[in-house]
Amino acid sequence: MDSDQWKLASLQTLEYLQRLGVKHLPKPSAQLSEILADWVDVSSKGSGGTSIPSSRPQLQAPEPKQPTSQVPKKPAQAPAQVAAPVPVQVASPSAMEPASRSVAKPYGPPVESPWMTPARSSQERSEALSQLKLQVEACRLCKDIVCHRRQTVFGVGPVTTRFVMIGDAPGPEEDRLGEPFVGASGELFDKILRATGIARDQVYVLNTLKCRPPNNRVPSDIELDNCRPYIEAQLEILQPEYIICWGATAVRAVLQTTESIGRLRGRFHCYKKAKVLVTYHPTYLERAPEAKKLTWQDMQMLMRELGTLKA
Ligand code: SF4
After folding, report:
1. Is this model's pTM higher than 0.85 or not?
2. Are 184 and 104 in the same domain?
3. Which end of the chain has the least Cβ crowding within 10 Å, N or C?
4. How far is the CA of 16 from the centre of ligand 1 (A)?
């Protein structure tokens, strides 16, 4: 190798070392090339005159080489690696987290946990509910129920409401009309709301199950579990401030406890960001009128919370 070749090889070596991230290297210059060429020449002579093999990579060609342990692993001039964007997975309503993980225990101070999605506009809520309603109408999960139902009872009301009222499983009138809280118990429900200062068209009403169990039997745990994702999805879309559970079945669905109404009423519970009030179902109040004063106390508690009842 002649002197010019050594100079070229020396410059290439410098560039290569720079790419490997070796700092404090002198700038390539003609003078430095001379020095390096001399050094290489002397070295080769000093090692017994053996010429440096032409295959020696750092001199022959500036081909990239696996960095050694002495060399910083990240080449300083290597092109930056840009991570591919990770697509955001949006959970479908049926895949939402079970309420048991987000609902506070009915005992002790309520613990706030946020809604899973940002609040939506009225139009977005209406569209989301329409989509969900189609899913419910197509649902046939509860084998013992679907062959008896006339229709599904999805729920109805304003999509930007502060209040969601949850009743038992649909009864015969609800199954016939496709709407919760209708018939005789619905009339009593309306009266209670009026006395509380809340109009029926201010609240969203829904049932614990979307389909009527045969012979008005109490829903099984499996049926409640089957239908709970729909309830949760509705609550997630509506994001109410207050949820009122009318009756034990609604309590089982929302708070997931079999504790009696008598032990749970009289204070607020928590479902995500909503305050949950528990009281007796109007159907029960028709059978046990003495319990009406307890439900009225619960409504007064709500009114005090809303600032519509002083003291
Ligand atoms: S009760 Fe709910 S889960 Fe069961 S079939 Fe009806 S919609 Fe589906």
Report:
1. no
2. yes
3. C
4. 69
Residue 54 forms part of a structural domain? yes
Query: Ligand 1 within 6 A of 188 CB?
Result: no
Residue with tokens 């204070």: 267
pLDDT tens profile 173-200: 999 999 999 999 999 999 999 999 999 9
State whether the beta carbon of 145 lies less than 6 angstroms from ligand 1: yes
Alpha helices in 103-171 (DSSP H): 122-138, 143-146
* CATH number, position 121: 3.40.470.10
Cβ 148 under 6 angstroms from ligand 1: no
CB-CB neighbours of 47 under 10 Å: 10
Query: How many helices and strands in the chain, by DSSP H and E?
Result: 12, 5
Task: Report the alpha-carbon angle 184-214-247, nearest 5.
Answer: 50
Structure tokens at 84: 């591919």
State the residue range of the domain holding 22: 3-60
